[in-house]
Amino acid sequence: MTLTVPPAPAFGREAVTTPERRGLSRDGVRLLATDRERGRHRDLFFRELPALLRAGDLLVVNDSTTLPAALTATRDDGTTFDLHLSTRIVDALWIVEPRAPGAEGARAALPGGAHVTLLAPVDDAQPRLWYAALALTEPLDAYLAAHGRPIRYAYLAEPAPIADYQTIFARVPGSAEMPSAGRPFSAAVVDAVGAAGVGIAAVTLHAGVSSPERTERPYREQFAVTAATAAAVNATRRAGGRVIAVGTTVVRALESAADGGEAVAASGWTGLIVTRDHGVALVDGLLTGFHEPQASHLDMLRAFLDDATLDGAYVHARDGGYLWHEFGDVHLLL
């Protein structure tokens, strides 16, 4: 089932630049709080989040750092296209998104004397993503710092530095796209969360290049849930607190580490797709951005909300002028 609200761009207003360039602080974006049990919606600002939490709750955040993963690729005939690095599989083998039609064996030059060779589509039915071999001239972090830029889509009015694509929790490099649900957190909000008796724990999930299409399922991503985070999740649940995931990436990581209703330390690759049918074993609430109504992300939201409440939340957000995409407003399902 799809949402009954109009599809993008009729759904609502896109955030075309960062909150800071709109005259706001990071924690000044809007927050729509949806009561999962009552189906009610409240209009707040993100800095008010701590007041919605209870002592003994646990926020779980994603500590993945966003890479400057967009490169300019040049064909032999001199024409160029954008190449988005999505997921590093091992060494020089990557999943990439060429923003132009690809062909097996096609090679293109990259800045600084590097090059990329497309090997095969990840999915023959939808060849948006490709396995590719990268031949770089220096280590990845140095190469991307010198030649890469943040992945930027057409709805953004202007480029922004990579620092604008990092959350306050970013520690472990690896995401092609920002784990954006964590972006509104400021030091002041983190301090207020702690003062309210709410814990914060971290997982790592390196987010690949997303797709707005419902027909394209999320693919495998690298994740890690430490023993300390697993223990914090279990202790919170045993004490009657709520585990609240900051982002759909956190839900995917935590639920990939569920074993018999408890969290365990786990790492590697996850292909888990969380839906209503799959359900959630460890997560009681979710903080997330607003996604296109046709996006597969919303299948995960259905694990938390019934169709009528989810429809109502998106109609409320549309009518209330909430902004969507990575620099937009956020939605708390609790």
Walk me through the structure.
- Helices cover about 20% and strands about 30% of the residues.
- The chain folds into two domains: about 15-65 and about 160-334, QueA-like, CATH 3.40.1780.10; about 70-145, Thrombin, subunit H, CATH 2.40.10.
- The protein starts with 12 loop residues before the first strand and ends with a strand.
- A hairpin with a 2-residue loop joins strand 16 and strand 17.
- With about 325 residues, the chain is α/β, with parallel strands linked by helices.
- It has seven helices and 21 strands.
Integer average pLDDT:
93
Strand order across the biggest sheet? 3-2-21-19-15-4-13-14-18
Please tell me the CATH architecture of the largest domain by its name: 3-Layer(aba) Sandwich
Structurally, how many domains make up the residues? 2
Overall geometry comes to: globular
**CATH hierarchy, class of the largest domain:** Alpha Beta
Helix count equals: 7
Helical coverage, percent range = 10-25%
Counting DSSP E segments of at least 2 residues, the number of strands comes to: 21
Q: Kindly, what is the distance between the CA atoms of the first and last residues, rounded to a whole number of angstroms?
A: 22 Å
Low-confidence stretches: 5-11
Structural class: alpha/beta
Largest sheet: 9 strands, mixed
CATH superfamily of the largest domain: QueA-like
